[in-house]
Amino acid sequence: MTKNIMIVGVGGQGSLLASKLLGHLLLSEGYDVKVSEVHGMSQRGGSVVTYVRFGEKVYSPIIDKGEADFIVSFEKLEAARYVEYLRPDGRVVVNTQEIDPMPVIIGAAQYPENLIEKMEVLGIKVDAMDCLSLAEEAGSSKAVNIVLMGRLSKYFDIPVEKWQKAIEECVPAKFVELNHKAFALGRGEE
Question: Listing from the earlier edge strand, what are the strands of the sheet with 68-73?
Fold first, then answer.
């Protein structure tokens, strides 16, 4: 059976590295994997969506509404924006950080309040944590993506050592130690 993961965030947050890491790990586990970066990549601050699909045989990289097993979100508003893609028994793994979109920055709108609570009221399983603080504790605010991957790893039957090996193979050597720490903090093991 094919599993579907959406990684959503804002340009410049590292969602492409997160999807590369996930794709690399799943390929090493023998799955057929399709990864597709959808839009907003080059536009810093723009919405970025990446699809990661894996299984015995995957024919398309695209995830339709109601199909995502996981939505991994770098920011609360992005999680709420894509929640309709989640399957009924799916889960949102979300960083509690708020990044103001352009309408909020220019004063044309306000950042919505209580987004996590609103998702939970709808019956959505939400695993929310302050990934930015954990990334800073690991040594860099840019490690939010790896903190999120650490949290996501708790829902997979793939040994931690294999996730760590994927980090070593996808991240420049000088950042491996920092990313190992960020991953452990995301898992709640540090």
Answer: 32-37, 47-55, 3-10, 68-73, 86-95, 125-129
**Is residue 11 within 8 Å of 77, Cβ to Cβ?**
no
Which pTM was predicted?
0.93
d(CA 152, CA 159): 13
Report residue 51: phi and psi, to 5°. -100, 135
Element (H, E) at 50: strand 47-55
Task: Read off the amino acid at residue 99.
Answer: I
Instruction: Give the DSSP H/E element, type plus range, for residue 51.
Output: strand 47-55
pLDDT digits (tens, 9 = 90+) for 31-53: 999 999 766 544 556 778 999 99
Nearest to 74 by CA among 34, 134, 160: 134
**What is the distance between the alpha carbons of residues 53 and 31, in angstroms, rounded to a whole number?**
10
The SS3 call for residue 188 is coil
CA nearest to 117, candidates 76, 149, 170: 76
Q: Which two tokens stand for residue 93?
A: 């793994």
List Cβ neighbours of 46 (8 Å cut-off, separation of 6 or more): 10, 11, 39, 40
Give whole-number Cα distances, 61 to 23, 53, 122, in Å.
12, 6, 28
